[in-house]
Amino acid sequence: MNDSARATQRHHGARPGVLADLRGTRWERLAGRGVKDELRSNLIAKLRAGEPLFPGILGYDDTVTPAVVNAVLSRHNFILLGLRGQAKTRILRQLVELLDEEVPYIAGTELHDDPFAPVTVQGRAILEECGDATPIAWLPREQRYVEKLATPDATVADIIGDIDPIRAAKLGTSLADERAIHYGLLPRANRGIFAMNELPDLAGKVQVALFNVMQEGDVQIKGYPVRLPLDVLLVFSANPEDYTARGKIITPLKDRIGSEVRTHYPRTLEEGMAITRQEAWLARDGGSAPVHVPPFIAEAVEEVAFQARDDARVDKHSGVSQRLPISLLENVASNAERRALTLGEDRPIARVSDLYAALPAVTGKLELEYEGELKGAEAVARDIVRRAIGQAFSRVATALDTEDVVAHFEADNQLRVPDGVRTADLVGVFGAVPGLLDAAAGLAPGGAPDEVAAAAEFVLEGLYARKLISRSEERGYAAPDLDAAAAPRARWN
Predict the structure, then answer these.
(1) Lower Cβ count inside 10 Å, N or C end of the chain?
(2) pTM for the full predicted model
(3) What is the pLDDT of residues 345-364, one digit of tens each?
(4) Integer Cα distance of 216 and 228 in angstroms
């Protein structure tokens, strides 16, 4: 191809297919540029343009995101430390967006050698043999990210590579020849990002191999020293409890990790609700009407996670994942949807009773301490849900007049909320309690009967959670239990 043809090809945006067509392009000028420099350059461009860096990651704008940005600008390998459900893996996967859309490499090379700076014997041999006719292939950014979950049974062969005697025999070479290596995941991430989740679970000898690659660019495979000058960004995630435990991570590897970024759970209820609303599957298909989730129900759902994280019966080292309120809200919506389909309601509406029906979304996500195990996961979860409803109710209680409601039950009156009744029809049931519908109207400004009924049920459950009235399976809502009323009240902030 002559110079004129190559210029025409570049003008029309066609991708060069041989090395000669790459000459004079930006790829020749960028020859030898490392992936860390590439990430840094693209990050700087995004910052200058004001583009979002981690779409869908909420609550980290002033904490985690700046720390990750600093790590990339510093060309650091880094680790994200945090409990489960803190978006660590999602952040690592979004680093791909900081890579170029695609990069050229010598076609047929296992480690995607840079045509102008090959690192493998294979790449150098092809370049020497073909010269400017060296075939070029293109690697999209999505294929430049390699992720591995660290497990105790992961080996050096899995991560770094192993000697392949059959390959050596076919090549007629010794086992010490680099061409006899079957490469593992890390070398195959050359010119990209290698992510290792739950780093402390990796065996010590594999950590040593990782350190050698990071520090010296070499490794020993079955006694043979192998030079691996890889161009790769290494990123990790770990639980902070495991990470700091003695013997979990070898000191040289920990020291080689440039930046340690701490993640966290949502710091405010509003942040948590925004994340849950974004992630929960509420746009249902199948012909049913959209599920209406009143604000006080959404708040109570999120409060369940906050209460669980503060509960002494829940293991703090394990944490309470943000997946808990997400799954809980989805189950709440499903129970409302099931009720609407069964009873022929015009639209599903989430109610307090749906939170208790959705306990299976809570119990499986709580790692309990000994005290919690004695009581049982369902009992602990039910108690947490009750306290969450009480906390959510306490935020609106001062604006609601519930004196007549409490007085009604203190006069030894009872109220059973019937099952199998359309939500809107419960307005007549709740109307038997003086002041209840008036109080509920403050939480249902639209005035729709189903919203008023859902709000009335929330008021009753809130009063029960604050121990101003009692509730039992037999009697329904009734006068406050004397023993419970005499006990010290929980604080409602």
Answers:
(1) C
(2) 0.87
(3) 989 999 999 999 999 999 99
(4) 9
